Amino acid sequence: MSEAQERAWIELAPQYVIESPRDVAATSIRPGSSIDPAQVWGRAAPLVVEIGSGQGHAIVHAATAQPETDFLAIEVFRAGLARTMLDADKAGARNLRLVEANAPEVLEHLLPEASVNELWVFFPDPWHKKKHTKRRLVTSAFAALASRALVDGGMLRLATDWEDYALQMRDVMSAAAGFEAGFEGEWAPRFDGRVLTAFERKGARVGRDIRDLSYRRLPRS
Ligand SMILES: C[S@@+](CC[C@H](N)C(=O)[O-])C[C@H]1O[C@@H](n2cnc3c(N)ncnc32)[C@H](O)[C@@H]1O
User: Fold this and answer.
1) DSSP reduced 3-state for 212
2) Whole-structure pTM over 0.90, yes or no?
């Protein structure tokens, strides 16, 4: 991290970062260490969670625009989290918290069942080579964790600029129990709650189609 990011971490982490007991890896979450969102945010409000928030552009913008909603950024890249805190602090966003952890473990262990109103995964694929496809986040195991964390009627929103990953996301989610498509036709319209980040801009610049998908969590029976 840069010196400014190191400073941001020391000064701002106590206010923004949710500390959680770890399992074996530094970015793991120990099973059984669930948070109470009402206690963390100090109120009962809808919760939006972004996985792989990068530099935090989308989530800081959304948190600032919607002060009545609570936001959680999940990211393993510490410098990105420091940037997110600096921007959130500058914008005066008090409804945002961050967790430095592997997202599937946050969905499985940190967030209570049926606690998330929207789950966002935008441009999750930093490794687009064929040999890396097995590392992709959006798999049937991920769909089951998303289904656990979302409230009835909650939305999972996905976006990618890699066509083969977009197809994988759509295949996985159309086969996933407990979800229905939130769009008609082949792809969802661009989610207007998403600001343009460097990843989307870069994908569009080199001529890749940006694909959006959205899925609604069906009511639990
Ligand atoms: C290609 S970047 C996109 C960042 C941001 N969503 C955007 O659109 O600008 C993907 C981000 O996901 C993060 N990431 C990848 N796998 C993750 C995981 N398992 N848990 C948490 N973050 C993850 C990476 O560290 C990286 O910052």
Assistant:
1) strand
2) yes
